[in-house]
Write a structure and sequence with these properties.
ten-stranded antiparallel sheet; Nuclear Transport Factor 2, Chain: A; about 675 residues; 32 strands; mainly beta; single chain; Beta-galactosidase, Chain A, domain 5
Length: about 675
């Protein structure tokens, strides 16, 4: 008999197939459209107790193991009769232990197969083809349909599951299969009924500018709708100017191998850190049981969701609001990472399991990469008396995955350093979403990045879920601020003193950052036995976040109502099993956020000395630049979790200060263009 996988290991192929077959048996004779099958984690209390025994070396063959559950998301029945369910399968018992069905107005996340239906429906739709024929496309051009989630339902909709498409043109005959079609937007938005696979309406979009009435369709350059557009290729072999020839190779070499190890399939050990990593199609990479020198720091770390609302006020662009995790089908959008491109050095790749509609379990390769990287100086000091400089490099362990959702790419990194810090990093790149605009016009809701192509203003709002376990599960969150104190003879006679004020968060809440108050948040273990023996303060970790702009849409708008999580920078709630998604389980096509963090806060749960969860919200307001075209340079955002009185000194003080013997000094040039520099380690 095969050994039982670790409780924090993803489902195996065999477990996934068993879960599928159990669901099939429960609905004999029914058509089943499988969406996702992945691990349903066992109750946290059971798993954490198991982990404590594991890390203390007290596990025995007789130790009870937490149960293994699978969750199966599928449609039972066809077309209008289809019913979406989420079944929880007890794998040991071989039975379904519970099912969850969505309510009125709630929809399952999209699948790639559903999206593929949109171009096919447009190809056979007389309505769409008649609308398309009104435009005279140049010789050799053909229409391309980019499927999109429908966004929010209109009040006049009947709640049916629908998808929308954005339309472009491309000259593949002359420019090949990889030609950039985004440079040629066509002002049509077809709408497909997901049940009938038919185009039910086609919206003609205005192409005017700031001086034209909103939604006036007639502001066009006649029927030659893309004649004023220009090519915008990005593949290196298509660039008119070619690629640079003066860039020399920069190679990462680790002659003695990597400093990390991977055992038991998904356990990672590196520089006093240990953790487990899994992949699931709803969140991507998930890190579990993160410990430093055996001490618990974080129980579970993941991205929870994100929302990308667009600011073009013209119909139907108010519906351009992607929830790239919740409704975007993240699993099938994940990249298969390429050696030497997405990650450098000695790399360990992890595969993931995805489910085909017929229930076939497919292994998708290289969805997560693990590697080390140099991140500059870690710490340094020079004794000016002896001129002795001691310097260490800051090395990081990086867990990365990348998703491509239509035009955009997002790279998500979890970075661990040798000083006990964790960085959550998001990089946004890809192609800005553009619409057609009349020649010579501009608009206040976007920027013309190429002739005829208006890149709409929008926001990217990300949410990370941090489930801390600082020296155990009973933690307290403290808001810390550094505040000025008026000059006074008793406590501040010279006016230079400032107060560090701490406020314990007693019940679940949403909070905002305040840079002028240096507002940060600490997760502390207030057990007297866990106090720091040097400072006497509770052992803790500090969360430092960028005070980025929150959602700009009016609070009464549908965009705001369906992304209530974007009202605050940080939410703190009490832990509940399977409460993982900040925007709720079903953001797809919803009018309001349901079951998200805003509802969790309404429970008014106790937060003191309890099992807490932090939901960190951050993002960027993207008002496009011409430099974002044709593919935007990455924009980088970072959150930092760092020890605060967790250790008794700098935990990286013992990092070797060896020189990199591969580094060389360039010869001195007589023109002064470069010189030499040295360091004494």
């Amino acid at each position: 008999m095969a050994p039982i996988p670790h409780p924090l290991s993803a489902l195996t192929v065999e477990e996934s197939q068993a879960a599928r077959d159990i669901v099939k048996a429960a609905y004999p004779g029914s058509f089943i459209y499988f969406r996702n099958i992945f691990l349903r984690e066992a109750p946290k209390a059971q798993v954490f107790a198991f982990l404590e025994l594991e890390h203390s070396g007290k596990l025995t063959d007789d130790t009870p193991r937490p149960p293994r559950f699978a969750q199966v998301w599928c449609d039972v029945g066809k077309d209008k009769e289809a019913k979406y369910i989420e079944a929880v399968v007890d794998l040991a018992a071989g039975k379904i232990t519970g099912t969850l069905s969505h309510g009125v107005g709630q929809h399952a996340s999209l699948s790639v197969d559903e999206l593929r239906e949109v171009p096919d429906a447009c190809a056979r739709s007389e309505l769409f083809q008649s609308k398309l024929k009104q435009f005279e496309l140049p010789e050799g051009f053909e229409a391309v349909i980019e499927p999109w989630p429908y966004g929010a339902s209109d009040p006049t909709d009947d709640g049916s599951r629908v998808f929308q498409g954005l339309v472009y043109a491309v000259n593949r005959k002359e420019n090949g299969p990889d030609s950039n079609f985004y440079a040629y937007p066509i002002p049509l938005v077809p709408i497909m009924d997901a049940r009938t696979k038919e185009i039910v309406r086609v919206i003609e979009v205005a192409t005017g500018g700031k001086d034209d009435p909103i939604n006036k369709v007639g502001t066009r350059n006649g029927n030659k709708i893309i004649d004023h557009c220009r090519p915008a290729e990005y593949c290196p072999e298509k660039l008119p100017q070619g690629v640079r020839t003066d860039l020399k190779p920069l190679t990462v070499i680790q002659p003695e191998g990597a400093s990390f190890t991977v055992t038991d399939g998904n356990r990672i050990d590196w520089q006093n850190w240990s953790m487990r990593v899994t992949f699931n199609p709803r969140e991507g990479a998930v890190l579990h049981d993160i410990r430093y020198s055996g001490r618990s720091v974080v129980y579970r770390l993941s991205m929870s969701d994100m929302s990308v609302p667009y600011a073009d006020p013209r119909n139907p662009f108010q519906r351009k609001q992607a929830f790239d995790f919740g409704d975007g089908g993240l699993g099938h959008a994940v990249n298969n990472l390429a050696l030497g491109c997405d990650c450098l050095g000695l790399i360990k790749y992890f595969d993931g399991l995805l489910t085909e509609p017929d229930g076939t379990i497919e292994t998708t390769q290289n969805v997560i990469c693990l590697h080390e990287q140099d991140d500059g100086i870690g710490w340094k000091h020079t004794d000016w008396r002896t001129n002795r400089a001691v310097v260490t490099r800051r090395r990081q362990l990086v867990v990365q995955y990348i998703i491509t959702l239509a035009n955009y790419e997002y790279a998500f990194n979890f970075k661990f350093d040798q000083a006990g810090g964790i960085t959550i990093e998001t990089r946004a790149t890809g192609i800005v979403s553009v619409v057609n605009i009349d020649e010579g016009k501009t608009a206040p809701w976007g920027n013309v990045v190429s002739p005829g192509a208006l890149a709409q203003n929008h926001q990217h709002l990300f949410a990370a879920r941090i489930d801390p376990a600082v020296d155990g599960l009973n933690n307290t969150v403290v808001q810390e601020e550094s505040l000025p104190v008026p000059m006074n003879p008793e406590t501040n006679p010279y006016g230079n003193y400032y107060e560090v004020k701490q406020t314990v968060l007693k019940t679940s809440c949403g909070l905002d950052l305040a840079p002028e108050r240096h507002r940060v948040f600490k997760v502390q273990n207030r057990d007297p036995s866990k106090r720091n023996p040097v400072s006497g303060k509770p052992a803790g970790y500090k969360l430092a976040m960028p005070a980025t702009q929150l959602l700009l849409a009016d609070a009464q708008s549908v965009q705001a109502r369906r992304a209530l999580f974007a009202k605050h920078h940080l939410w703190v709630t009490k832990y509940e099993d399977d409460e993982l998604y900040i925007g709720g389980r079903y953001p797809m096509q919803g009018m309001d956020e349901q079951g998200g963090v805003a509802d969790a806060v309404k429970r008014n749960d106790n937060l003191e000395d309890d099992d807490v969860v932090l939901w960190a919200v951050y993002g960027l307001t993207h008002n496009p630049r011409v430099e974002d075209w044709p593919v935007m340079p990455v924009e980088v955002l970072q959150l930092h979790l760092m020890p605060a009185d967790f250790f008794t000194q700098n935990p990286a003080i013992d990092v070797p200060s060896n020189k990199d013997l591969g580094s060389k000094s360039l010869p001195v040039r007589t023109d002064g263009a470069n010189g030499t520099n040295g360091c004494a380690c």
